[in-house]
């Protein structure tokens, strides 16, 4: 009886403990793993958003792409409230009675509402610019900006100039002894000060220097544990099996001993540490060892180079190069150096061994002007193409290229292939686009891991993928608005497949193309039969007959004599939004199902798993019972809907401008990849294309697990005497 009571107590205890640790089961990581830097760009004109007395907003005109953008800022704290790209350039502006008169380059004037940017039908009056602040009462003396009284010419207020002061962008006085002033700095900071009763009441600074990223790369921080691990592994390599086993056990025990020593063998401390939320240092250490911490190195159009923490967008350091035509930035020598190339020639090398500190310049050289620079090997060899079409190779003297390298280049008229052989580049073949054709998109198959050779069908047969690595696809437009996509062999130049789309493709919309494992995906906008965004896929197989394989696993084929041709399936789908840019998710080992990253014209970024975009989807009626057993098989439906949960930007609007860089950075966790979209705005997030199969979620309930284990131990502890007495009684044949 007592025993039953005891176990009842312990179970109650267990339930009570579980109750203590209840946490939300669903933990949304939105806004914790992603960040956005919303930029306005260089300010062209700053205006009060309204003439009303209580106006607390500023209206800013800035350049965005080839047009002008209107932005509204909260005057109190500098927070961005709204942005509206106009799509046309404005050269000057005037504000009057909540109307903004925008002067266009050709002299005509558009009128919009100053609070919301709506177009107004209003016949313009005489134009006088409101963009140039009246500086007649301002003096610049002794590193200070002094505001003078108009009548007596006495100083009434003075503010310290920022160090790299450039000018006054805004100066407005509505009542006596009160005014607002905004400075701009050479490095792209805008600082605002509001003065009432001759005392400064509020100040804020907006950093606009990271707008318009032109090139980027990333650096991984060194993991201190990794070096130790490598050392141990190399030591193990020189031992026999038994010794190695003993060695490993000893190392692990040592580690346990150190762990316990550090915590002075206090069980309380260990349990507390286990249950506690981790502090910043441990979470950073974890992010380093899982490869979730990367440093983005970006170069902006004004020549600023900055390092950003990819987890939160924090800027670690910046370097003003003053180079306004940076085309490439790359990390070299196991992420200890970064090299910067420009169109006009100057090239810089930085030492970033200590990535968290401002780097120092190692070399400043002048190269020949280049149209494009392409990294062609991991050792740091680059292919340059000059404005005259001449090509040359820059390679590291320590790691010269010894084997032949095949290169493929393209412009809007032709594809040209080269081979680098015996230290010279020779052209091998050339494909010209047709008479009235123009190459509008190109993508070659990247060299990455492919985990599966084939696709397992529902009846346990296999369809073999065509995994020949030297493939590329390009799209051309013709005068009849026909889009043609061709797949070629990049070594021989042979045409492997051609797809036409003659549904009146509108080439004013973006054409995008990416090449993945054994497929290529492209997007276009066509106007027939109804205007619609299309997304199409071409898949290549060794054979379309299940279990038929033409390649021999053990035979290495010479790419110049490759006679195996792919068999092709193709499908097109409709998509509800205009697609601006596309990319592919990259993971460390390529086991995670690939997804297509779509940047939409409406400012959202979303992902689309490749299995949805399959060329082998057929209508429901044609699917056999066996077919339905295939992994993630779906019947063909012409329209692909947007899944709200796949929208990476949540309810943010991204303005990335015409040349956005969409990139995916693999981490050391196979499930996880970092996706960034950089341009006018900067955005990064973490993506799990097949969910987080290799990581416990942050909401994983450690507390509950511990309580359950302890509860079970307690139950065992109390049940044991009960069982022992029972056994004893049984032996003596005593009845209860
Ligand atoms: C923007 O202007 C540049 C050069 O001025 C031009 O090459 C480009 O096509 C323009 N882009 C758009 C979208 O009009
Ligand atoms: C501006 O910011 C202040 C302080 O945070 C806030 O009280 C005010 O409502 C904001 N104004 C607008 C228009 O958002
Ligand atoms: C100026 O250009 C705008 C669009 O760019 C056009 O709508 C307007 O008619 C032009 N005005 C004149 C006077 O040409
Ligand atoms: C620009 O402003 C930001 C935010 O106040 C500040 O951290 C940064 O140091 C400033 N940059 C310069 C060059 O002054
Ligand atoms: C397995 O399924 C595929 C696709 O439906 C079909 O082509 C193939 O003939 C089937 N193989 C066998 C052995 O049933």
TrEMBL record:
Pfam families: EMC1_C (PF07774). This is ER membrane protein complex subunit 1. PANTHER family: ER MEMBRANE PROTEIN COMPLEX SUBUNIT 1. Belongs to the EMC1 family. Residues 1-27 form the signal peptide. It is a single-pass type I membrane protein. GO terms for biological process: protein folding in endoplasmic reticulum. It comes from Lachancea quebecensis. It is found in: Endoplasmic reticulum membrane. Keywords: Endoplasmic reticulum, Glycoprotein, Membrane, Signal, Transmembrane, Transmembrane helix. One of its GO terms (cellular component) is EMC complex. Component of the ER membrane protein complex (EMC). Residues 517-732 form the ER membrane protein complex subunit 1 C-terminal domain. The chain crosses the membrane at residues 705-723. InterPro entries: EMC1, EMC1_C, Quinoprotein_ADH-like_sf. It comes from the Eukaryota.
């Amino acid at each position: 009886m007592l025993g039953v009571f005891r176990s009842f107590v312990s179970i109650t205890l267990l339930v009570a403990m579980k109750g203590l640790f209840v946490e939300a089961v669903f933990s949304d990581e939105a806004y914790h793993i992603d960040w956005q830097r919303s930029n306005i760009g260089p300010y062209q004109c700053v205006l009060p958003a309204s003439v009303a007395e209580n106006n607390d907003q500023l209206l800013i005109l800035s350049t965005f792409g080839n047009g002008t953008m209107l932005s509204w800022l909260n005057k109190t704290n500098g927070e961005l409230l709204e942005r509206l790209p106009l799509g046309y350039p404005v050269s000057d502006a005037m504000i009057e009675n909540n109307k903004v008169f925008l002067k266009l380059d050709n002299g005509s004037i558009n009128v919009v509402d100053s609070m919301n940017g709506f177009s107004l039908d209003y016949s313009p009056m005489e134009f006088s610019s409101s963009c140039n602040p009246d500086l007649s009462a301002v003096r610049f003396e002794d590193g200070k900006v002094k505001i003078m009284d108009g009548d007596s010419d006495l100083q009434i207020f003075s503010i310290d100039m920022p160090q790299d002061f450039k000018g006054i962008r805004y100066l407005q006085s509505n009542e006596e002894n009160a005014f607002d002033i905004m400075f701009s700095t050479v490095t792209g900071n805008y600082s605002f000060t509001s003065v009432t009763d001759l005392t400064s009441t509020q100040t804020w600074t907006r950093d606009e220097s990271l707008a318009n990223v032109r090139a980027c790369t990333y650096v991984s921080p060194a993991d201190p544990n990794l070096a130790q691990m490598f050392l141990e592994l190399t030591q193990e390599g020189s031992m026999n099996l038994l010794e190695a086993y003993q060695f490993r056990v000893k190392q692990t025990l040592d580690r346990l001993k150190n762990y316990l020593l550090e915590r002075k063998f206090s069980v309380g401390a260990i349990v507390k540490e286990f249950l506690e939320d981790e502090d910043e240092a441990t979470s950073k250490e974890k992010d380093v060892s899982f490869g979730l911490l990367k440093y983005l190195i970006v170069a902006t159009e004004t020549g600023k180079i900055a390092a950003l923490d990819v987890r939160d967008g924090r800027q670690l350091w910046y370097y003003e190069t003053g180079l306004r035509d940076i085309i490439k930035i790359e990390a070299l020598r196991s992420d200890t150096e970064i090299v910067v190339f420009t169109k006009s020639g100057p090239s810089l090398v930085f030492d970033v061994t200590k990535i968290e500190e401002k780097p120092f310049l190692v070399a400043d050289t002048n190269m020949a002007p280049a149209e494009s620079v392409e990294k062609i090997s991991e050792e740091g060899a680059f292919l340059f193409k000059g404005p005259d079409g001449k090509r040359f190779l820059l390679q590291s003297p320590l790691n010269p290229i010894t084997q032949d390298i095949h290169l493929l280049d393209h412009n809007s008229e032709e594809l040209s292939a080269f081979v680098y052989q015996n230290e010279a580049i020779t052209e091998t073949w050339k494909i010209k686009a047709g008479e009235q054709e123009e190459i509008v998109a190109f993508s070659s198959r990247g060299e990455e891991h492919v985990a599966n050779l084939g696709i397992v069908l529902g009846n346990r047969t296999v369809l073999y993928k065509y995994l020949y690595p030297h493939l590329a696809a390009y799209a051309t437009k013709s005068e009849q608005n026909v889009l043609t996509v061709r797949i070629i062999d990049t070594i021989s130049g042979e045409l492997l497949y051609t797809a036409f789309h003659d549904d009146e493709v509108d080439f004013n919309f973006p054409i995008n193309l990416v090449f993945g494992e054994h497929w290529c995906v492209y997007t276009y906008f066509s106007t027939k039969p109804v205007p619609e965004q299309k997304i199409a896929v071409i898949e290549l197989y060794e054979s379309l007959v299940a279990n038929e394989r033409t390649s021999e696993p053990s035979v290495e084929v010479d790419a110049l004599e490759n006679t195996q041709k792919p068999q092709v399936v193709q499908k097109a789908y409709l998509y509800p939004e205009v697609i601006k840019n596309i990319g592919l998710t990259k993971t460390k080992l390529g086991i995670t199902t690939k997804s297509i990253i779509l940047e939409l014209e409406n400012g959202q970024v979303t992902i689309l798993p490749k299995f949805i975009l399959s060329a082998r989807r057929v209508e429901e009626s044609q699917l056999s019972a066996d077919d339905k057993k295939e992994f993630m098989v779906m019947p063909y439906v012409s329209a692909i809907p947007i899944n709200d949960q796949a929208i990476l930007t949540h309810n943010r609007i991204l303005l990335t401008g015409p040349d956005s860089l969409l990139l995916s950075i693999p981490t050391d966790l196979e499930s996880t990849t970092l996706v960034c979209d950089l341009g006018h705005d900067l955005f990064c997030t973490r993506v799990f294309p097949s969910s987080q199969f290799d990581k416990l979620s942050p909401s994983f309930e450690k507390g509950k697990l511990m309580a359950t284990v302890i509860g079970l131990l307690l139950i065992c502890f109390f049940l044991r005497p009960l069982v022992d007495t029972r056994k004893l009684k049984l032996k003596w044949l005593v009845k209860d």
